[in-house]
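As promised in the previous annual report, we have extended the structural survey to additional targets. Below is the entry for DnaA regulatory inactivator Hda.
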Amino acid sequence: MMRQLPLDLSVRDRPSFENFWAAENGAALAAARALAQGRPGPLYLYGPEGCGKTHLLAAVARAVQGGGPCAFLSLAHVSSMGWQSLADLPPDSTVCVDDMEALAGHADGEQQLFVLFETLAPARRIVLAGRSNPAGLSLARDDLRTRLASGPIVAMRRLSDEVKAQALCHRASLRGLHLNDVACAYLLAHGPRDPRALFALLEDLDRETLADGRRLTIPYLRAILARP
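The corresponding structure token record, generated without further manual editing, is:
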């Protein structure tokens, strides 16, 4: 059978507030929306891997596009590129900072992040995320820790399998991809455990079903997951 050449559909599943399944993380979603809509920061989100921190940071960046300068920075990457880039951002920027734990042991990084906070004053439209709250970060500067804690600090929880199933069906429906309960349960049992990888799998399924012109049955899912 001839396979249809699929279009690039990934734009439909880029992180946004609309495709974030809040469940027990509704407070984090509301706080991120408020900052994107102009509420002064900082906002600090923390929680384990897979709870949706990076998704919300990316959603903030997407929501403010066109409304002024915006930067999305992973400190894990900034540490290898040079910390000066933190202090070079325009004062009217909206700044999204991920992987705060990567700041540990980097005095230059702490200095430049402190400078960034002062540069962004008074609005300080900055949202930061890490695995631990500001009190739990390995920081040498107490004045930086104070600034990190000067706005809302919101804990986020890892998705349970039940919530993952709800989020998976929600993201699939936004793509126009029908994923029934049986297919969803199969993906949770046999697909990746990490939510980010699980949601990325939807893009592959969307592309494969469009190319093959087939529905998502269990045998078809099994065949797709077995592909190299």
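Strands lie at 43-46, 70-74, 94-98, 126-130, 153-155. The domain at 25-155 is CATH 3.40.50.300 (Rossmann fold). These points will be discussed at the next consortium meeting with the crystallography subgroup.
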